[in-house]
Design a protein that fits this description.
about 300 residues, mainly beta, Tumour Suppressor Smad4, Arc Repressor Mutant, subunit A, 3 domains, six-stranded antiparallel sheet, five-stranded mixed sheet
Length: about 300
């Protein structure tokens, strides 16, 4: 019960990617390509309706020799990311149903790869394994497992339930058309309207004046709006400080930038986890039901 694409790598090995997986040079990418001509976060595998698609993030690619920024993944395709790096699509798995989860204040959402379920400040699902998560869910290839914080792992399938505190969650079978998601949408706070203009971001809400971000904070949020998918912290930080070559120094600057951005949101009465960074280094916009984004960059 998992949509996936099987790719043959340049060295002849085979890898499987699921919706939400990133292909790129950064170490947090699901498929890491050791090629200086490949961008840190080059492309993203996305589930759109009943098809798996490859979306360009920070670099274009060739599909059977033709330049493209988005393509439906089909067996036999040759995907070239640089003169030295070409991948071949061996197969695409699109089952009638895929595994999902829903529960108290958590709308039905697809499970892809390894996911972390956190309850604070509201139930949300994040990619990867987060150390402070209330539950971790992962695919074994032929099934799913769940491990609650401090407990042993157990099988997890459609109809299986678990409880954390006073909240209950259940595994659900989702059709591909309902499982496809462009962005993370969850929670119950008042809707926001985000307008990204690169050097400024305007965040409108039902009550109170809009929050206007500028400088580095605006560039971070604008980039996330423009791409519409999680990005690695390095992919966001390097354009902000192109003169910094040391990775540790770059990370320190990024951490300060993110803390300041979240403080701006909190001080303005906007949920600070609107911009969230996972333990795996991916940064994403966490949009709730009713939120709207507009890219004017």
């Amino acid at each position: 019960m998992r949509a996936s694409v099987c790719l043959r790598l340049p060295d002849g090995s085979v890898d499987h990617l699921a919706p939400g997986d990133i292909i790129g040079r950064v170490w947090t990418a699901a498929l890491r390509l050791d090629d200086p001509h490949v961008s840190e976060a080059h492309a993203l595998v996305s589930l759109r309706g009943r098809s798996l698609r490859l979306l360009a993030l920070r670099g274009r690619f060739l599909v059977d020799g033709q330049a493209s920024s988005e393509t439906e993944l089909l067996p036999g395709q040759r995907l070239r990311f640089s003169p030295e790096t070409e991948l071949t699509v061996l197969s695409v798995e699109l089952p009638e149903q895929v595994m999902g989860i829903e529960g108290d204040s958590l709308p039905p959402q697809i499970l892809a790869g390894t996911c972390s379920l956190s309850l604070w400040p509201h139930p949300r699902l994040s990619p990867g394994s987060l150390a402070d998560a209330d539950a971790i869910l992962w695919s074994t290839g032929d099934g799913w497992r769940v491990r609650l914080h401090g407990e042993a792992a157990q099988p997890f399938g459609p109809g299986d339930r678990f409880t954390i505190g006073d909240r209950s969650f259940v595994g659900v079978a989702m059709t591909l058309s309902s499982a496809g998601q462009d962005r993370t949408q969850q929670g119950v706070d008042a809707p926001l309207h985000l307008i990204g203009r690169y050097d400024s971001v305007h965040i409108h809400r039902a009550e109170g004046p809009p929050l206007v971000l500028s400088g580095q904070a605006a560039r971070v949020v604008s980039e996330l709006i423009s791409v519409g998918a999680p990005l690695s912290w390095e992919a966001l930080a390097q354009p902000l400080w192109p003169e910094v070559d040391d990775r540790d120094a770059l990370r320190r600057r990024w951490d300060v930038c993110l803390v300041r951005l979240r403080a701006r949101l909190r001080d303005a009465g906007i949920r600070p986890d609107l911009v969230r960074s996972s333990r795996l280094g991916l940064v994403e916009l966490v949009l709730q039901a009713g939120d709207r984004v507009e890219d004017q960059s």
